[in-house]
Amino acid sequence: MDWDGAVNAWHVAGGIYRMGRREWLTEAGWRQAFDDGVRTVVDLRNTAEGRRRDSDPVVPAAACAGIEVVQAPTEEPGDPRFTAVTGPYLNDPAHYAENARLFPEKLVDVFRAIALAAPRGDVLLHCAAGRDRSGLVAAMVQDLAGDSDEAIAEGYRRAARGINERYRTHGPPHNRERYLAEAELEPLLEQRGLTVVAFVRGLDTRSYLLANGLCPSELDAVLALSGAGVAK
User: Fold this and answer.
1) Which of the two ends of the chain, N or C, has the fewest CB atoms closer than 10 A to its terminal CB?
2) 131: containing domain
3) Residue 16: CATH number of its domain
4) Cα(52)–Cα(41) distance, rounded to whole angstroms?
């Protein structure tokens, strides 16, 4: 998606999109997202992460009029069971299954937020980089939408390439991230794309969400928004 200022913004399925930090959007970018049908932004970050940086554009509140922002983090920040596996944050699809195992109620809340937002219009999911927390949820959305293994793998790979390009042009945000040249990036993404597919197929998103408290009517709303059953 070419919304002004957006970093790593992509269409996922149906009326669902994903990207990196919303604070990167300019005033024009917010209006473009609105014009494309976005009415709800679901912030997958932990509350403490949602702050403006000095380098972010100044955006008047009126620019976001008509778009509701909902906080729905995918994890419990600092949970030692999780950080023992992931380190300070989720940055590898190999850990998606652990996220789903430890925090089913969090992921159900994400999909409940999508379901509640669906009658208003399209939904934009975002985390910090637009790669792993949004990648986890996007893969689940694609699973519900009936996307192929290759489409799901490619969804992850293009988002990982997107933020890697950001690191090339702007530098990484801290020393746990770095720009990867193509010779290192390509084989890494090949494997990680397969890992995302293995995660989501092993999860069985419909069964997982229903077993952990999502109502059938809420699932139906997500399915409708994701375009499930609609010819591609």
Assistant:
1) C
2) 10-226
3) 3.90.190.10
4) 16
What is each CA distance from 75 to 14, 86, 102, 150, in whole angstroms? 25, 12, 8, 27
Digit-by-digit pLDDT tens for the chain (232 residues) are 999 999 999 999 999 999 999 999 999 999 999 999 999 999 999 998 988 888 999 999 999 999 999 999 999 999 999 999 999 899 999 999 999 999 999 999 999 999 999 999 999 999 999 999 999 999 999 999 999 999 999 999 999 999 999 999 999 988 889 999 999 999 999 999 999 999 999 999 999 999 999 999 999 999 999 998 553 3
Q: Is residue 2 part of a domain?
A: no
Q: Please give the model's pTM, rounded to 2 decimal places.
A: 0.95
The residue assigned the tokens 């994890």 is 75
Paired with 222 in beta bridges are none
Specify the number of domains making up the chain.
Answer: 1
